[in-house]
Amino acid sequence: MSKASEIKNGNILRFNGELVSVEEFIHRTPGNLRAFYQARMRNIRTGKLVEYRFRTDEEVEICRVETNDYQYLYEDGDYFVVMDNNTFEQFNIPKSLFGDAARFLKEGMNVIVAFESDEPIMAQAPTSVELEITYTEPAVKGDTSTNALKSATVETGVEVRVPLFINQGDKVKIDTRTGDYIERVK
Q1: Is 49 found in the same domain as 38?
Q2: How do the pLDDT tens digits run along the chain, 186 residues long?
């Protein structure tokens, strides 16, 4: 157990039985009252914000979180199987930890996973990925003057909006956070 004065922004705490990430931690000393710490924390599982005032001598549990790079191997039901690049050990990570970016994962990609005592708590896909277009309608000559977009299917099976000049077989860079087209890759 640690004292509240040892908490820093970015720490992971066990607070009321849940894991929370400290987003903001401020020391307050109001006029003639006792000093306290004002904390704004986000629940890791639900994403809800929690605000709490810690006394300066209050005991808290700061969790030891291990973050590392892993290689995505394959999908197994509701889990993604990833491999530690150093020890070659494999782990099952729930798909829900990746959020919407999970639909752009391709075998062999590097992902970041955070563990707290052998339990995965956070997972992050790369911010952009390069994927090949497997199907799209062919472009019509003269359609490139406007900012018009058309639907295209990438190799992971996700449908994205791309400019009219993109053809089947082209490689494109896609933002995994929004699913938007960034650029064509040579």
Answers
A1: yes
A2: 899 999 999 899 999 989 999 999 999 999 888 999 999 999 988 889 999 999 989 999 999 888 899 999 999 999 999 999 899 999 999 998 888 889 999 999 999 999 988 889 889 999 999 999 999 988 766 655 667 888 999 999 999 999 888 889 999 999 999 999 999 998
* Residue ranges making up the domain that contains 44: 2-62
Do 106 and 120 have their domain in common?
A: yes
Assess contact for 122 and 97: CB atoms under 8 A.
yes
Number of domains in the chain: 3
Of the chain, the end-to-end C-alpha distance in Å amounts to 54
| Beta carbons of 162 and 150 less than 8 angstroms apart | yes
What distance in Å separates the CA atoms of residue 59 and residue 169, rounded to the nearest whole number?
Answer: 58
- Report which of 83, 85, 91, 111 is spatially closest to residue 99, judged by C-alpha positions: 111
Tokens of 131: 């994927």
Strand partners, 37: 27, 54
